[in-house]
Amino acid sequence: ISLYLVISDTKNLPKVWELNVQFKLFVYDHIRDKYLTIQDADERIRRFHGLKTEWGFDQLLSLNTFKTASNGYLLEDSCVFGAEVFVIKYDGKGECLSMIKELEDNIYIWKVDNFSAISKESLYSEEFIIGERKWKLLLHPKGDVLAKGKSISLYLEVADYATRPLNWKVYAKYKLRIMDQINSKHIEKQGSSWFSALSKSWGFRGFMSLSDLYGGWGHIVKNTLIIEVEFMIMSAIKNFT
């Protein structure tokens, strides 16, 4: 015989729900006035949810054992089953992750003036909001540590990472561009990254060689460099209860 514990009334539960439960099932022995107790060997917690509303045992007892009169489980064609249920408290909170493919105002433009006069090893753009998240661009005009003197380095960074929860993360598919202000032959690289507390910025160390940048292609005009970031996809997390 098989015996299961089932949540029968799920219509009155929230749209997204789950219950964590420890339980025991019983079969009554009429002769000895005691119960046969069946439970997982390690007292495992079972999770009930919309797609899994029952847990139990496929082979609780063999039919021969169950029907043998001396075992006391079946008396005058009647039997008694029972259950002891412990519900582990659940706060009813969760997250739903989705990908937004049509972002409004998905482009940010950064004009870096007096480019040749920059003496700093790195500088940030102003913070900007796209997809309800704060971002900023990080530029190394003469390259970061491993690209120094060879290439310009350009990164996209989550601006408010310090105030986010410890386990935060956001996915973004994006394009970084250095604009050609004369011939429209822009230098573009595409990224697809998960940003998190351990990886708050992503981008390209060797975005564009310095020789090409200063080679008269139209990327620096009137000592101004124009950088653009375009977001194609971004993750969004919705909390629910």
TrEMBL record:
<dbReference type="InterPro" id="IPR002083">
    <property type="entry name" value="MATH/TRAF_dom"/>
</dbReference>
<feature type="domain" description="MATH">
    <location>
        <begin position="105"/>
        <end position="231"/>
    </location>
</feature>
<dbReference type="Pfam" id="PF22486">
    <property type="entry name" value="MATH_2"/>
</dbReference>
<dbReference type="InterPro" id="IPR008974">
    <property type="entry name" value="TRAF-like"/>
</dbReference>
<protein>
    <submittedName>
        <fullName>Putative TRAF-like family protein</fullName>
    </submittedName>
</protein>
<feature type="domain" description="MATH">
    <location>
        <begin position="1"/>
        <end position="85"/>
    </location>
</feature>
